[in-house]
Each structure stands twice: as structure tokens, then as C-alpha cells.
Amino acid sequence: YNSVLLWISIFTRQITEIYLIRRLQMRSSVSVILSSPTPDTNMSHPDYDQNAHDHATLLVLVKQIGEEVTAKTYNKIYERISKVTNLNIIDSIGFERNIKLKYVKDYLVGNNDWGDFQTHRRLFGLVTIGKCSTQVELNEVCRVHESLKVKYTNTLYDSRCIIIGVNDGPNTPSFPTPSNFKSRAIFCASEGELDVLDSEILEFLSTLFWVL
């Protein structure tokens, strides 16, 4: 009889220990879940500004490079570029095509990846805006521009880099761009001399259509 009681006591103790261990493990797991940040998934960043008309637009990112460009200058250039929302282009067989454009100031790569399923999410064009006064600063602006191209390389068709502060004349740079800069630059003498932008941006937007 005593041996039976001893066996029951040992068995009960083991069951209790197992229960306590599992309860502690469960508490630990719950604690980790509650303390961990929410995963940054693509669908965590919906674009609430989208509408039905966006399905027929070409998406263009207008991005500031560096801190030399003030918020006022960036917004001024962005507003100037984003005024062009429609382009009428005569295609190769003589038909007039109406091209609609949408501009954004920032765009997640994760959202761009959805372009395989939703074409209006593809980023087709990139325009960067930088300011510099030396060769070293110019090289850095060009480097960041090229790195952004790589970031969106899966869908990007063409790009332009607006560079303020280093030119000796209309769209004439004071310094050469680095050899690894494979894009087209638009040089402006200052924030107040942006007239060259209008024709250059129209040409860039037209290029997106012809590449498509």
C-alpha cells in the first residue's frame, strides 16, 4: 500500500512539474509576441489616395536627394513637375494617344513589387532633385540617384536627375558627372532659374511612353 502511495506521489509531482514548465514556456512565447514589432508587410502601407483613374496612369517618383535642397525648393519643383498630368502623343502609326501621369514623393519597394499583379502600382519613372557646389558633392548626388535606380530596377523605365548649383550656362555643368552615372542630368544654376525644367520634363515623360 505504501509503495502505491509513493508511486502516486512521484507521478503527481512529475505531472505538476511538466504543467508548470509548459505554462512558463507559454508565458514566455506570449511575452515575445507582444513585445515584438508588427511585421512590416507590403499590405501594411496602403495608398489611400488611389482611385479608379490610377489604373490608367504611369507612376513617377519625384525624390529629394540630400539636405541641401530646402523643403520649399523641393515642393516648388514637385508642384511644377506634377502639373503635367496628361500628355497627347502621336504614336508610330499616326494615332493620338493620351498619357496620364501620377506623381508621388516616396514609394515603398514592397508596393512596387505588386506591379506584377496591379500595373498601376509599377513605378515607371524617377526624378531626383539634388543641390551641390563641388565635384565631391556632385558625385554623391549622382551616386544616390543611381542607387535609387537599382532599388526600383524591376519596373523603372527611365529617370532624370535635377542638379542645382553647378552649371556655367543653360544646362551646362561646371564639373563632369562621374563615369558610373548612367542617367541624364538636368542642370539648373539656382532655385530661381528653373525654366529649363519644363521642356526637359516633357521630353522625359514622352520617353516613358516610347519605351513602353
UniProtKB/TrEMBL annotation:
Instruction: Write out the GO cellular component annotations.
Output: trans-Golgi network
Q: Which InterPro entries match?
A: Trs120_TRAPPC9 (IPR013935)
Give the source's domain of life in one word. Answer: Eukaryota
Q: Which PANTHER family match?
A: TRAFFICKING PROTEIN PARTICLE COMPLEX SUBUNIT 9
| Name of the protein in its database record | Uncharacterized protein
What is the originating organism of this protein? Cuerna arida
Q: What is the lineage of its organism?
A: Eukaryota, Metazoa, Ecdysozoa, Arthropoda, Hexapoda
